[in-house]
């Protein structure tokens, strides 16, 4: 069974809020607080969950909740494991080094998944490029490749 089309509206509003609120000066200071982000998510998500329960679709809500919990547990495990893995070294922050990181990340993603590869390599990439003046693009490319 598929989710009803009306359930897309809060999802689109959530994506729009994530994209726009940090850019609007009057809202940016509110959006910086995780409590306000959670409140925004609850205001949009709880009515959908209640609506699906009332519409006699509790299996959809239960299925989505189970998948969400599984995803959070996966992230917790990956974060715990990758936090214990420390890659040390003094690599030069050059385009060649960054390309090698991206290539290794792409290969690792095939074996341990994109989330695991990203969590494993993000700290070494950030540490290697810490002294560079322009480094934001490195994280963007890492997200795109891995």
Automatic annotation (TrEMBL):
Any single Pfam family the record assigns to this protein: CitMHS_2
UniProt xrefs under InterPro entries: CitMHS_2
Residues spanning the membrane: 6-25, 37-56, 68-87, 99-122
Source organism: Candidatus Brachybacterium intestinipullorum
Keyword annotations of the record: Membrane, Transmembrane, Transmembrane helix
Domain of life: Bacteria
This protein's name: Sodium:proton antiporter
Signal peptide: none
């Amino acid at each position: 069974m598929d989710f009803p089309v009306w359930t897309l509206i809060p999802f689109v509003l959530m994506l729009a809020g994530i994209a726009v609120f940090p850019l609007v000066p009057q809202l940016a200071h509110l959006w910086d607080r995780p409590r306000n982000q959670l409140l925004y998510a609850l205001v949009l998500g709880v009515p959908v969950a209640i609506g699906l329960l009332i519409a006699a679709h509790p299996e959809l809500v239960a299925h989505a909740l189970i998948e969400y919990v599984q995803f959070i547990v996966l992230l917790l495990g990956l974060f715990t494991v990758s936090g214990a893995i420390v890659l040390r070294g003094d690599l030069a922050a050059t385009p060649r080094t960054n390309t090698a990181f991206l290539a290794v990340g792409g290969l690792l993603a095939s074996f341990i998944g994109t989330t695991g590869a990203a969590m494993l390599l993000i700290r070494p990439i950030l540490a290697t490029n810490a002294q560079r003046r322009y480094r934001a693009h490195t994280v963007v490319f890492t997200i795109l490749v891995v």
